[in-house]
Specification:
With 434 residues, this protein is mainly alpha-helical. Helices cover 70% and strands 3% of the residues.
């Protein structure tokens, strides 16, 4: 710690994700390790990431598997939609409480039994559908899956614990996590649809349950990287109050995602693509995944900048749909998706900054819950807009949702930088080579 003029400089330890041997040798033959290579050089990170990815893939499988299974066996999409909607509503209520217990007692102690309850709920759903049980049993079984732990939040909490003194590497880790989300939501529905149609209707749900349980057991077995549990009732208040303005922003982002998906499905179906529409829809997730990985190698941008870029790019699908060209729409979805991951990474970093100590899992789960609420509202609104105005006009909804997110950010304090009244500067002893 030194004093330079009127500025207090606190020297932090070197970034733990930057090995001392990563510098480029004078001979020029070696090369500095890339940010992702340095990230996964940390002990235990590869193991918990493997379990995390295995458990995260089914998050994109369960919903569509349940719909296809119930509709296939009972012949009612209305029943299938009502069952899955009930499950989402139950999860919105239960997930924050599960996350609070994870923060208090530890990931392994809470996530494993919570996963077992969720898996049993999925198995019960399969049995009830297969045996022709009354409809109420389907609702009860799927509601039991609400105990599903937020695997993405727990993985981000591990990175935050490991990289608490390495902000640059933490940004890379959060970008990787967002890219992993996009990849799983890209591959999950494709795998579920294949299993439910090519094998048997219940195969998607059964495979998802097996993958989720196996991945969670592998993930929680890595105790060396697990954040310490608080072990007591939280001293701070609920993160809900601190995150309230930011949750409005996440709700607007969910509105963008939900309305874009429903509108695109309707537009592509009207264009006669049928089963091939899934490949076009996947382009948005692919663009977001690629952008997320790239963003992890760059300096983070402000939330305002990311949201403005999102608002501009979300207008592209509307313009492309007006041309009537499927190729133009595919390209527009790919480009529009590139704004998603940077926005989510930057917004999640604000969740980390605003959440009280020891409540990180709960804070991130509240953000996910807000997104789910926004997706539900966006899906319902887009459905009405498609029926009354047509798909091309309904593409204005994602753009409107992005503009609403910009407005929410402008109205909230979370985009404002703290004043530099004390002029305290935290300098790293060794810079993260970028």
């Amino acid at each position: 710690m030194t004093v330079s003029g009127t500025t207090l400089v606190l020297a932090a330890p070197a970034d733990p994700a930057t090995p001392a041997t990563s510098a480029t040798p004078a001979s020029g033959r070696g090369r500095a390790a890339g940010p992702y290579r340095r990230l996964f050089a940390l002990p235990g990170t590869r193991a918990f990431t493997a379990g995390n990815l295995l458990a995260r893939l089914p998050t994109g499988m369960f919903g569509i598997s349940a719909v296809m299974m119930i509709a296939g066996q009972r012949g009612s999409y209305a029943l299938a939609g009502a069952v899955t909607a009930t499950g989402l509503a139950a999860m919105a209520l239960v997930a924050p409480w599960t996350a609070r217990l994870v923060d208090r007692y530890g990931q392994a102690r809470i996530a494993v039994p919570a996963t077992l309850v969720a898996v049993l709920g999925s198995l019960a759903l399969v049995v009830c559908v297969r045996t022709g049980a009354p409809a109420w049993t389907l609702f009860a079984s799927y509601a039991a899956t609400a105990t599903t732990p937020n695997i993405g939040g727990m993985s981000r909490a591990r990175w935050t614990h490991l990289l608490r003194d390495a902000p640059a590497s933490h940004h890379t880790a959060m970008s990787f996590e967002q890219a992993a989300d996009e990849l799983c939501y890209l591959l999950g529905p494709v795998l579920a649809a294949f299993l439910c149609t090519a094998v048997f209707p219940e195969a998607g749900t059964l495979a998802g349950a097996a993958l989720f349980l196996t991945g969670m057991l592998v993930f929680t077995a890595q105790r060396s990287t697990e954040p310490p549990a608080t072990g007591a009732a939280p001293r701070h208040g609920s993160p809900l109050r601190a995150l309230a303005p930011l949750l409005v922003l996440f709700g607007c982002l969910g509105l963008v995602f939900g309305s874009m998906e429903v509108t695109s499905i309707a537009h592509l179906d009207a264009a006669g693509l049928g089963a091939a529409s899934g490949l076009v829809l996947a382009l948005q997730a692919a663009g977001s995944c690629a952008a997320g990985l790239l963003y992890g190698t760059l300096r983070p941008r402000t939330l305002r900048t990311c949201l403005c870029a999102l608002a501009v790019l979300m207008a592209l699908p509307w313009a492309a749909a007006a041309t009537g060209s499927v190729a133009a729409l595919a390209g527009a979805l790919l480009v529009a998706g590139m704004a998603t991951a940077p926005t989510m990474v930057t917004a999640m970093s604000r969740v980390h900054a605003l959440t009280p100590a020891g409540r990180l899992n709960e804070g991130m789960t509240l953000a996910v819950t807000a997104i789910l609420a926004g997706i539900a509202a966006g899906s319902a609104t887009a459905g009405l807009a498609v029926d009354r105005l047509g798909p091309p006009t309904a593409y204005l909804l994602p753009a409107a949702g992005a503009l609403a997110a910009v407005g929410a950010a402008a109205a909230g304090r979370f985009i404002r930088r703290a004043g530099d009244r004390s002029r305290v500067v935290r300098a790293a002893a060794a810079r993260d080579p970028r």
